[in-house]
Design a protein that fits this description.
It is a single chain. The protein has 213 residues and is of the alpha+beta class. Helices cover 18% and strands 42% of the residues. The chain contains three helices and 15 strands. Strands 7, 10, 13 and 14 form a four-stranded mixed β-sheet that branches. Strands 9-8-11-12 form a four-stranded antiparallel β-sheet, with no helix packed on it. A three-stranded mixed β-sheet has the order 3-6-5, with helices on one face.
Length: 213
């Protein structure tokens, strides 16, 4: 017997499975929540992983932006998450900012790159979420790239992306399997947050005939 299986149905089933599993729902960060943690001469990345484990917080950072292997000491007994983050910020010389349900980490003092004339290159960050325009659900591992510069990244398990670039004008492209490619032109002279919604490409969602034995 022949069966017609639509790619559209496949994507709907996939999205439905993710929704049912609860893996795509954002959380509200409560910085007043009390936690306890004791770390002595422990790498920053290990401390962040432990905090994420006991709080379900989502940290987002680039390894070239923070001293992830720097050893820090923090002793907190029933302290607020804000207190702990401020302590880590001071110990590791980093900044943090809340972007929806993500805690984005960046270095306070970043190595300064120089242009051909020896002038400092100023950099800014564009970040945000990539979603399905119809359902509003996050798209995991969506591609975010600048084609001409061969620079890019992908969204994490929460649909969040972050890209740090020298200031200037860029055309950033967002793509995901089965969706229309979306170009976005930005004037990056300050760090900005840009959420993006992609549309399904129904021209690619053609029916595939599968023959069963």
């Amino acid at each position: 017997m022949n069966k017609l299986i639509s790619k559209t149905l496949f994507y709907l089933l996939l999205i439905g499975t993710l929704i049912h599993s609860g893996g795509l729902h954002a959380q509200t960060i409560d910085l007043t929540k009390k936690i306890s943690i004791n770390a002595v001469d422990t790498p920053l990345e290990a401390v962040l992983e432990e905090i994420a484990r006991i709080t379900d917080l989502n940290f987002s950072y680039s390894l070239d932006q923070i001293p992830y292997d720097k050893k820090i000491t923090i002793r907190a007994e029933n302290k607020s998450i804000r207190w702990v983050l401020n302590k880590i910020s001071k110990e590791a010389n980093i900044n943090y900012v809340i972007v929806e349900n993500q805690i984005v980490l960046k270095a306070k003092s970043v190595k300064v790159d120089l242009d051909d004339d020896g002038k400092p290159i100023v950099k800014h960050t564009i970040s945000g979420y990539v979603r399905d325009q119809e359902s509003g659900e996050f798209l995991i591992s969506a591609s975010v790239f600048i084609e001409d510069l061969f620079i890019g990244t992908s969204t994490n398990e929460f649909g969040f992306y972050s890209l740090t670039l020298p200031e200037g004008e860029y055309t950033i492209k967002f793509s995901y399997v089965g969706y229309n490619l979306m170009p976005l032109t930005v004037d990056l002279f300050n760090s900005v947050v840009k959420d993006v919604a992609l549309l399904l490409d129904f021209n690619e969602l053609t029916e595939v005939e599968v023959e069963s034995e």
